[in-house]
Design goal:
This protein is an alpha+beta fold. Helix content is 28%, strand content 19%.
Length: 376
């Protein structure tokens, strides 16, 4: 499913936005594709030993004969549990928990080529842990500049590449430069060129409620095309300072515990997932379960709590955050039984009470307008 481009006017340049239609079928396919399957569409896999965690990390690279490099990370906080296109009264949005950063992969693989933009593509992992596999990438040629579409909102994160000249170049095409915290290109300073992380116009990232504003992204893509057309043959040099006054962002312990489990620096190898169920997919981070003592694919615990709101109220949020899915499910089974037993003792049927709870939660939310589910 796709749609015709809407006529949009950029508020700064006053130019009419004219870009190809978003291909929702292709977008959904890329959002759900495990990392190793990108080899089927021309990407070459490389595997590296990460000294920081003593684990293996992967990249997927496709050489399209360009002197511009686009980078996107494939790991995410949640699985592709849903993909919904919603026509609201004032805008069209796309709801998916993996916009960060599957949208970057989609744009480089499908959208940018249809806009006449040719770039080499590097796909990475572990960005959400503040430890992107991009740092291992050593190209066989020099690039003019590198970029990503891995930024919430509409601005352009510049990190250590930030300077007045680069901001002026972006401003000329209606783009606002800002500093930013962390993404893959921050670990790619050794390439000696500027890096820019363009806004992908998604919001509520790192949550199940993440959505993308399609009109804003269309405007940003038009601005990016203008920037690309002017500077595609210009090397935007960057010199790595002898003394770095900035410090790389790294997830604090509480953040890593909550979202990733306890990553232990021990030897292990990747086991490629074989199923199609999202609990087996490769963009979950390998982590060590302190309950059963095994390495496994980390299932986001918030997803399970979101689906069982009664348990979420009664369950201590600090418990079970270092467990794998199976151990955590066992923990929840006990809590669910206790919860429903307590409800039954008050004369209320447990299942009915849970239905009423969910209903009351949903009634507090505004009703969606013209929701269209794009093929399950």
């Amino acid at each position: 499913m796709s749609r015709k481009s809407r006529e949009l006017i950029h508020p700064s340049t006053k130019k009419k936005v004219d870009i190809p239609a978003f291909n929702y079928d292709m977008m959904r396919k890329i959002y759900k594709m495990p990392m190793q399957q990108f080899s089927k569409i021309g990407f070459k896999k490389k595997q590296y030993k990460d000294r920081k965690t003593n684990t293996l990390q992967r990249t997927m690279f496709k050489d399209n004969g360009s002197n511009i490099l686009g980078v996107a990370h494939l790991d995410s906080h949640y699985p592709p549990a849903h993909f919904v296109v919603a026509n609201l009264s004032h805008k069209r949005i796309i709801l998916s928990p993996v916009h960060d950063d599957r949208i970057g992969a989609y744009l480089m693989i499908d959208m940018l080529p249809r806009m006449g933009i040719n770039v080499d593509i590097l796909l990475t992992e572990d960005e959400e842990q503040g430890n992107s596999s991009a740092k291992h990438f050593t190209p066989k040629k020099e690039y003019k500049w590198i970029f990503m579409f891995d930024r919430s909102g509409t601005d352009v994160a510049l990190y250590q590449y930030n300077d007045a000249d680069l901001r002026a170049k972006l401003k000329k095409h209606g783009l606002e430069g800002s500093h930013g915290s962390y993404s893959c290109i921050k670990d790619m300073e050794k390439l000696g060129v500027k890096g820019m992380n363009f806004g992908s116009c998604y919001y509520n990232n790192h949550s199940l409620d993440s959505y993308l504003n399609e009109s804003e992204l269309a405007i940003n893509l038009a601005c990016f095309r203008d920037f690309y057309n002017e500077f595609k043959d210009t090397k935007l040099e960057h010199k790595e300072p002898e003394y770095k006054s900035y410090q790389k962002w790294q997830a604090p312990d509480w953040y890593a515990q909550r979202y990733y489990g306890s990553v232990q620096p021990v030897e292990r190898e990747y086991v490629e997932p074989t199923g199609t169920d999202y609990k087996d997919w490769s963009f979950y981070h390998d982590f060590f379960c302190q309950s059963c003592g095994k390495f496994t694919q980390n299932t986001q615990l918030e997803l399970f709590m979101h689906e069982l709101p009664i348990v979420e109220e009664l369950f201590d949020d600090s418990d079970g955050l270092e467990m794998c899915y199976r151990c955590y499910l066992d923990q929840y089974r006990t809590d669910i039984d206790e919860c429903l037993t307590a409800l039954d003792s008050d004369g209320t049927e447990g299942a009915e009470a849970e239905d009423d709870y969910v209903k009351s939660e949903n009634e507090a939310l505004p009703k969606p307008v013209d929701l269209v589910e794009v093929s399950k």
